[in-house]
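Hello again, I could really use a second opinion on something today. Take your time with it, there's no hurry, and the full record follows here:

___
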Amino acid sequence: MWFAYYIIGSVLFFSCLFYSINGWKQSVKDILYLFFTFFPLLLFSSLRYPKYGTDTYVYSDMFGVFAQGNYAFYENPFAYEPGFMLLSKIISLMTSNFQMYLLALNLFYIWSCVCFIRKYSSSVWLSVFLFVGMGFFDQSMNVLRQFFALSIILWSYRYLDRRVIWKFLLLVILASLFHLSSIIFIVMIWIDRIPLNRKVFLGYLAILLISFAFSGKILQFVLTEFGVYGQYLMSSDFGIVEESKLASVLHLFVDIAVLCFCFWGWGNVAVRTRGNILMVKLLMVGTIFWALATNLGVLGRITAYFDIFAIVLLPNVLFSLGNNTNKLISVIMIVSLFVVKYFVISYLRPEWFGIYPYHFYFEYL
C-alpha cells in the first residue's frame, strides 16, 4: 500500500511546503504545487503494469494489435467508439510502446484537470487533494476511454457556464466519440435553466428517494426497453442485483454530504455565485445516478461526469464563508474524512480502485 501513502502524503506535504512560504505570489505557489503533485501522478499512471485492474489490460491488447498493423482503425474489432479507435490507431503509427500510449492519454487528462482546477478553484491544493481523495486519479488508470471523454467534458464546462450552447454541444458530441455515455451531459442544457428554489429542491428529493427505492425496477425497464447497457443484464459481475452495492451507497452518501455542506453555507450571498449554483445542479444530477447505481454498479461510472465538479465546488463554498474559524474546522474535517475514506477503501476494498497492488511495468520485463 505504499502507493496509497505516497499519493495522499505527497499532496498534503507539498501543500504545507509551498503554501507556508511567505513573499511568493499565489499564482507561483499554485503553479509549483500543481507541477510537483501532478507530474509524479502522470508518471505513475503511465508506468503502471496494465494487467492489474479492470479495463487497462484490454486496451493493452487492443493497442498491441494496432501496433502490429493487423487491423485498420475502421475495422473496429474491439467495438469501441470511433474517436477512441482513431486516436489509438494514430498513436500506434508513431509508437508501439504501450507506456507511451498511456502517457499520451494520461497527459491530456491530467492537463485538462490542471487547467480546470487552476481556472475555477478558490483553493488549488484542496481541489487537488479532493481529486485524489475522491478517487478520480485512481479511476483514470482503469477506464481510459471514459476519462478521456471526461477531459473533454471539463473543457465544455466553460461554454455551459457562459451558455454558449453550440460550442458546448460540439464538445459533448466530441466526447461521445470517445465514450458514448458522455452524451448524457447534454441534459445540463435544460437543467441549467431550472432555478434552485424550494419546490425544485423538494422535487429533487422525491426523484432521489424514488431512484434509490426502486433502482432495480427502473433499471430493468430502461435497459430492456431502450437497449442501453444491455450487455450487463446477464453479467454476473456487472448485472442488476437485489441488494444495494456498498460502493454506490458510499459514493451517494459522500455526494449528499457535499451538497449538505453547500446548502449549509447557502445563506451567504458570496456562496450563491453562478458557478457554484451550476455545480450544485451538476452534483444533484450525480446523486440521482448514484441512487440508481445502487443496484447496477457499472452505472456509477456515468456519475464521474457530474461528480468531478465537487473538487472545485467544495473549496469554492468553503472559502466563501466569512468566519475563518469555521473555514479551518471545515478544512480539517474534510481532509480527515477523505483521508480515512481513501485508506479504508485501499485496505478493505482495493478492488474498487482496481490499481492495488500497484506495480511498475518494468517489474515484469
Q: What stands out?
A: Confidence is low (pLDDT under 50) at residues 236-243. The longest helix spans residues 324-348. The radius of gyration is 20 Å. The chain has 17 helices and no strands.
